[in-house]
Amino acid sequence: xxxxxxxxxxxxxxxxxxxxxxxxxxxxxxxxxxxxxxxxxxxxxxxxxxxxxxxxxxxxxxxxxxxxxxxxxxxxxxxxxxxxxxxxxxxxxxxxxxxxxxxxxxxxxxxxxxxxxxxxxxxxxxxxxxxxxxxxxxxxxxxxxxxxxxxxxxxxxxxxxxxxxxxxxxxxxxxxxxxxxxxxxxxxxxxxxxxxxxxxxxxxxxxxxxxxxxxxxxxxxxxxxxxxxxxxxxxxxxxxxxxxxxxxxxxxxxxxxxxxxxxxxxxxxxxxxxxxxxxxxxxxxxxxxxxxxxxxxxxxxxxxxxxxxxxxxxxxxxxxxxxxxxxxxxxxxxxxxxxxxxxxxxxxxxxxxxxxxxxxxxxxxxxxxxxxxxxxxxxxxxxxxxxxxxxxxxxxxxxxxxxxxxxxxxxxxxxxxxxxxxxxxxxxxxxxxxxxxxxxxxxxxxxxxxxxxxxxxxxxxxxxxxxxxxxxxxxxxxxxxx
Length: 482
Ligand code: ATP
Ligand code: MN
Description:
With about 475 residues, the protein is an alpha+beta fold.
């Protein structure tokens, strides 16, 4: 076969240069036709749309044609031509075809029909080859790019914070241990505990749950930084919104108070959504149709807003800002509360808000994204700035429709004395965390930051409903197959 430089399917469809001779390589989605002419739908991952290859059957070897099955990899030389078929402007009139990789049709699990998302999770090594996961993969790529774009344009520096950490500030119960000790016969201390001083790092270590504490160290020199890395939580929450391994975006800013922090969170999420609208429209249209198809059986009032309309709605409207105390009041006066419909009852100030409460506020009460502030000190982390009322901290959670909490953040406590007092009250290892406390001894300033779960944002942007479908290789309890 003659060597011609390979073109991507997306470029051929976009440029539509009729008469040009091209080479394309990709995977066959379908082949149909008769003994005179065959139509091959070819996809190479560059577009939600397939490229139609037209093969005049008599010109090709019969054995070759038979090998062009769903899933096979082929290389095609041909001429771009105007297409008379519906759904595409151009197609390729094939002059030569090579089969690069055969695909045994009897064993190939992906048939040219609709498969359930559950089934596709079981064959996650192949699900990139479906329209849905192709679209999600391209959108995810664009969103990653947008994160770096946004912060870089604003003068934030990207910091790589450690993945292996010895600080367990957020509570050791939900961390994964990292060790090279022999699990069958670990060295013991005199008291009979495992002796981690003999472990690889000379102390106990875990996978990080957040890059925040290290991020703060950088912010208190570089002014504005962000981390975007994997985080790990061993909590046994088998929900559609929790992963054991997920990616978190954590900006940390010196000289920002809580209002500045909320402004940034709102600007950032709107930028991200708008970026998807401007750069991923074909994939979003596909995902929107997919969602509407999925929801056909539902009653009108249970259907979600059309995906693209929903994204535009969030970009165009101000988020509602209110305090936790005000939210509790709304919840206590709500119908589901009075009728005992909440699974977790709301018991006034101090109640931790569950996803059902967050979603009530966002989806039923305000019908807009909501930023809740000033949570009770007792239910939030030690590093949050204490308010003068002695019972709340300057926390903020951003709540999104369909998702609930998408961002958790706060102004940080900048006073050394108050921070130390809180760490003592919570029995945190202040000696081991001297490095964190040092920032409050050497030029401490007001500062703020937040964490946005990247996959939660992906759920919102793609309209997918299970977090395991917006990350290529999900990690969740009892599931680390691929
Ligand atoms: P939730 O209450 O929803 O479990 P959290 O309060 O434990 O979340 P934070 O510690 O505030 O979460 O983490 C910051 C952000 O990271 C959250 O707002 C959310 O977007 C995301 N996130 C937290 N836990 C997970 C998880 N297990 N899987 C995916 N994303 C998560
Ligand atoms: Mn949170």
